[in-house]
Amino acid sequence: MTDYVVDAHQLTKVYQMGEIEVQALAGVDVQIERAEVIAIMGPSGSGKSTLMTILGCLDRPTTGDYSLDGEAVAELSDDGLSVIRNRKVGFVFQQFNLLPRTTALENVALPLRYAAPLNGQPRIEAGRSAGVNGTKKERARAALEAVGLGDRLTHRPNELSGGQQQRVAIARALVTDPTMILADEPTGALDTKSGEEVMRLLLALNRERGTTLILVTHAPDIAAHAQRVIRLRDGLIVEEGRL
Length: 243
Description:
Elements: E1 4-17, E2 20-33, E3 37-41, H1 48-55, E4 63-68, E5 71-72, H2 78-88, E6 89-93, H3 104-109, H4 136-146, H5 162-174, E7 180-184, H6 192-209, E8 212-216, H7 220-223, E9 228-233, E10 236-242
Parallel strand pairs: 3-8, 3-9, 6-7, 7-8
Antiparallel strand pairs: 1-2, 1-4, 4-5, 9-10
Helix pairs in contact: 4-5, 5-6
């Protein structure tokens, strides 16, 4: 039996714009295996950003079924989506979205502050690198060390280069030990060298931790790192295949 992290069927998304309905997704099926590296591509307006928000539990589909790591999430409440999102998904965006007045360590520890029990079980388990009894601070430090920033714990974002800031964002994404990382144009704000370093880091995390990696991108050179590319147009998958 195939171990799917993402198992979505006939996803639709309709936005109401005044009296006009806009269909962003028109019936999309997506299945992604554990530890797979996927690229989602398509022109502006193709539906890829909408698909990303649904797969990342930032929104829910209008219709369709979606299971993330075996949990049905399509019809969860906002609070339920928030719980699953915190436990299962790490996000890396083009803009680093770091809090400017807090240190790298504090930025990375931020997702751990929102941990809460789910069905009587701890929402966040101890991180691999931090040990069973690791504190939030220890886990954040371990995540920064994993991205090569163990010597930048107390630096604030304005004291870091763009590539270093994106590494902090990646550490923040992995500190909860998520099932998958969603990276939306992760190198778009970086120079070529820094972008290549960030991609090497994301791919290394995928190999070493078995974290599913979904890359949402316009860039063919970024998509070339994926094992499979999903191309969207007008809310539909028009091409899908392994590289």
